[in-house]
Design brief:
- Its cofactor is FAD.
- Its EC number is 1.5.5.2.
- It catalyses: L-proline + a quinone = (S)-1-pyrroline-5-carboxylate + a quinol + H(+).
- Keywords: FAD, Flavoprotein, Nucleotide-binding, Oxidoreductase, Proline metabolism.
- It comes from Chryseomicrobium palamuruense.
- The protein has 300 residues and is an alpha/beta fold.
- It has one domain: TIM Barrel (Alpha-Beta Barrel).
- The chain has an 8-stranded parallel barrel with strand order 1-2-3-4-5-6-7-8, surrounded by 7 helices.
- Helix 9 links the parallel strand 6 and strand 7.
- The C terminus is likely disordered.
- The structure holds flavin-adenine dinucleotide.
- The site of flavin-adenine dinucleotide has 21 residues, from strand 4 and strand 7.
């Protein structure tokens, strides 16, 4: 299956390392905002001008050296400073594995604490992105620890996990992003069919809209978006209780349309040299995105 093929490519560490050396290639520049903080701030300014906010992700995976995790932390702190300096409408998304979760839990926790603490001083929200199953519980543990001291932190619920229903109940007082789930997970822990995942996704969104704090509905699926529009209308849920999110470069017409209709809209803005794994997962989700690659080859 193409999905499995691209997921395998995304996890190939040799290809990940090689891609870092070559800058944005293969069409990745359509879905990655830049390789530097400066380029990324410029992209965010353009989104803000259209009434769209941003959540910024410093790309990076397969971090097994402390130096790499510390460098990622410094880069994220620099993004927080740049958001303040340029007064752009943006917050941060980060991955615990990039900050050392595969090296040592306490080391990752301290790196995240430093970022959340720094961001809390200017009220910048930090979203802990959710990765594959092996990172799931430790990431929730980190959230539990940090939320004892800070309220500018939240996370993601992945609808393909059987445990998502329990998690959303437990974390209903948090700002949550709800997604279908991007990794390949085994049948012991996750729904496998699109129908099951979509049904659970809708159920979780409705639950958090009705019972929870702020909800970020992160999807490119127009059926889900239309369903949510009708649901909030039927239940008189005010637009300041939720936002739609999409990835940078995807369905840009729909992004503008939703923002123009008056919905809060936030774009996930990935940047950095470590773009390869991210790009491959996007191809895995939607092989039609290969168009980006093909176009690039023919328009060089
Ligand atoms: P899909 O199920 O991929 O698509 C449903 C339908 O929508 C398609 O059949 C098609 O008709 C239409 N469609 C989809 N994409 C397009 C397109 N580009 N153009 C035209 N039509 C399209 N996953 C995680 O595991 N952890 C995270 O922390 C995480 N954060 C995310 C943050 C954001 C902002 C977003 C948008 C996604 C995130 N994801 C994350 C990924 C997510 O889990 C899904 O893998 C991904 O969004 C694909 O699912 P979908 O809901 O967009 O719709």
């Amino acid at each position: 299956m193409l999905r499995d093929f691209f997921i395998a490519l995304s996890e190939n560490q040799t290809l990940n390392a090689a891609a870092k050396r070559y800058g944005l290639k293969m069409g990745a520049q359509h879905v990655v905002a830049g390789t530097t903080v400066e380029e990324t701030i410029e992209s965010i300014k353009k989104l803000n001008a259209m009434g769209i906010s941003a959540t910024v992700d410093n790309l990076g995976e397969f971090v097994f050296e402390r130096e790499e995790a510390l460098a990622a932390k410094e880069q994220i702190l620099a993004v927080v400073d740049a958001i303040n300096e340029h007064q752009v409408d943006a917050h941060i998304s980060l991955k615990p594995s990039q900050l050392g979760l595969d090296i040592d839990y306490d080391f990752a926790l301290e790196n995240l604490r430093e970022i959340v603490d720094h961001a809390s001083k200017t009220d910048i929200f930090i979203n802990i992105d959710m990765e594959s199953n092996k990172h799931l519980q430790p990431s929730f543990d980190i959230l539990d620890e940090l939320s004892k001291d800070y309220d500018n932190v939240g996370t993601v619920i992945q609808a393909y996990f059987f445990r998502a229903e329990e998690d959303i109940e437990k974390y209903k007082n948090f700002r949550l992003r709800i997604v279908k789930g991007a990794y390949k997970e085994p049948a012991e822990v996750a729904y496998q069919t699109k129908e099951e995942i979509d049904a659970n996704y809708i159920q979780l969104i409705e639950y958090h809209l009705m019972n929870g704090k702020f909800t970020s509905i992160a999807t490119h699926d127009h059926n889900v978006i239309n369903h949510v529009k009708q649901f909030v209308k039927d239940h008189n849920i005010s637009t300041d209780k939720f936002e739609f999110q999409m990835l940078y470069g995807f369905r840009t017409d729909m992004q503008k349309e939703l923002a123009n209709e008056g919905y809060n809209f936030c774009v996930y803005v990935p940047f950095g040299q470590d773009w390869y794994g991210y790009f491959m997962r996007r191809l895995a989700e939607r092989p039609q995105n290969m168009n980006l690659v093909v176009k690039q080859v023919f328009t060089k």
